[in-house]
Amino acid sequence: MASLYTLLSLCCLAAPVVLDPPPFKFQPEQVHISYPGVPYSIVITWTTFNKTESVVEYNVWGGKLFDLRAKGTSTIFVDGGSEKRKLYIHRVTLSALKPASAYVYHCGSEAGWSDILYFIALNESNAWSPRFALFGDMGNENPQSLSRLQKETQVRMYDAILHIGDFAYDMDQDNGRIGDEFMNQIQSIAAYVPYMTCPGNHESAYNFSNYRNRFSMPGDTDSLWYSWNIGPAHIVSFSTEVYFFLDYGVDLIFKQYEWLKKDLEEANKPENRKARPWIITMGHRPMYCSNDDKDDCTRFESYVRMGRNDTSPPAPGLEELFYLHGVDLELWAHEHTYERLWPVFGYKVFNGSIDEPYVNPKAPVHIITGSAGCKEKHDGFIPEPRDWSAFRSSDYGYTRMQVLNDTHLYLEQVSDDQYGKVIDSIWLVKEKHAAAVDCAVSSAGSSAQRKHECLHAHRRVMSLWRVCL
């Protein structure tokens, strides 16, 4: 008769091996929304790891839940890492929305649905006062500002979020899993308000493939550059990275430049500038900064500002283009600090007046807001600020902006280190918005010589004006 020990041993050997169940790969995650540039519309984007339908069920707040239904499409994104992980990116456009109305929605398919979420359809009028949160350089590790942004977004403090480059640190890491984690972290804000983006240097892996596939911005440029209108503002998003990652194509510098030129010329047509007087740009690497690192606005002339002479033909910079087309405000990140500049062009300060520098300034105002929090921590500053530097802080935090009306725009900096304290604020007042001495519009299509003469004529005017002050 077999011993009890022998019988138990045989039973153990015969027992089936129990493995962890496979992940539920049909479940939607990483939900976020964006404005597609088409009035009365919103795009809802999410991810699954198996192929499913792309469906959004929704209705106005207070209506019969999920009474409306919209279908979209999915695209396969294969991460460039060694595992070649496959993600299904779903996009559904909701159209014919009622402006400024609240909608409840969920997304997915009969194989799995997201949580119940909501958004406010954009007010399509140019006579309202949209509110924004602005920041760059937020990672999935040490995203210090995220919890405050979550709460403020969910109590409807903002109408849109502008993330000015550098996500997750980095979305391609661990075969794209860090990107998944980050997109799930920001769902708590990005599923409620349009989350509008531009690429930064930390998105460069595999030709910016994680950035280009995960986000859904207006236009047909893989979210690299685009523009959109909100309230009295025309917002232009572009890639500073075309100046640095030349292996992906030097031609991208010129393609983007020509696109920017046409977009700004269109925005400056009298009927368009009257309807959307504020022109605001957002790009990752700043033209100016007073940090102490080894970057291009600290150790050598900014490529974004001045262009590159080591390409054939030489690549044009953007400072003169933005100046001539009357850009009012330029938003940047990249430096892990906050810095507000005086109105500046060509290293010269052109304040509106001694007492009211931001009232009718004669050059664009620059804001650097890259301190949302990431694993790289803070950047430092040089001991003595430059003449064009008005305020600096190395606190973790983010910027709030409200475009109040045609003439007034408000900015303030929130310190997360100081429990949400507003540590800096300005009113930017422009009683007249226009391209510089109408050069940009009147010389559109004219010779390069005419534009060159126009620019130098305006520089002479600015020099005289500054001396008079």
Q: Would you write up a description of this structure?
A:
The chain has 469 residues and is α+β, with helices and mostly antiparallel strands. The chain is globular and about 60 Å long. Strand 27 (408-415) and strand 28 form a beta hairpin. The strands form 7 sheets. The protein has a 7-stranded mixed β-sheet with strand order 15-16-17-20-24-21-25, with helices on one face. Mean pLDDT is 90; it is low at 1-20, 440-446 and 460-469. The protein starts with a helix and ends with a helix. It has helices at residues 4-14, 146-154, 177-190, 205-214, 251-267, 270-275, 303-306, 319-324, 439-442, 448-468, and strands spanning 29-34, 42-48, 55-60, 68-71, 73-78, 86-94, 102-109, 112-113, 117-120, 131-135, 138-139, 160-164, 167-168, 195-198, 226-230, 233-237, 278-282, 307-308, 315-316, 329-332, 338-341, 344-345, 348-349, 365-369, 389-393, 397-403, 408-415, 421-429.
Give the SSE layout.
Elements: H1 4-14, E1 29-34, E2 42-48, E3 55-60, E4 68-71, E5 73-78, E6 86-94, E7 102-109, E8 112-113, E9 117-120, E10 131-135, E11 138-139, H2 146-154, E12 160-164, E13 167-168, H3 177-190, E14 195-198, H4 205-214, E15 226-230, E16 233-237, H5 251-267, H6 270-275, E17 278-282, H7 303-306, E18 307-308, E19 315-316, H8 319-324, E20 329-332, E21 338-341, E22 344-345, E23 348-349, E24 365-369, E25 389-393, E26 397-403, E27 408-415, E28 421-429, H9 439-442, H10 448-468
Parallel strand pairs: 10-12, 11-13, 12-14, 16-17, 17-20, 20-24
Antiparallel strand pairs: 1-2, 2-6, 3-4, 3-7, 5-6, 7-8, 7-9, 10-26, 15-16, 18-19, 21-24, 21-25, 22-23, 26-27, 27-28
InterPro entries: Calcineurin-like_PHP (IPR004843), Metallo-depent_PP-like (IPR029052), MPP_PAP (IPR041792), PAPs_C (IPR025733), PAPs_N (IPR015914), Purple_acid_Pase-like_N (IPR008963)
Family: Belongs to the metallophosphoesterase superfamily. Purple acid phosphatase family.
Organism: Conger conger
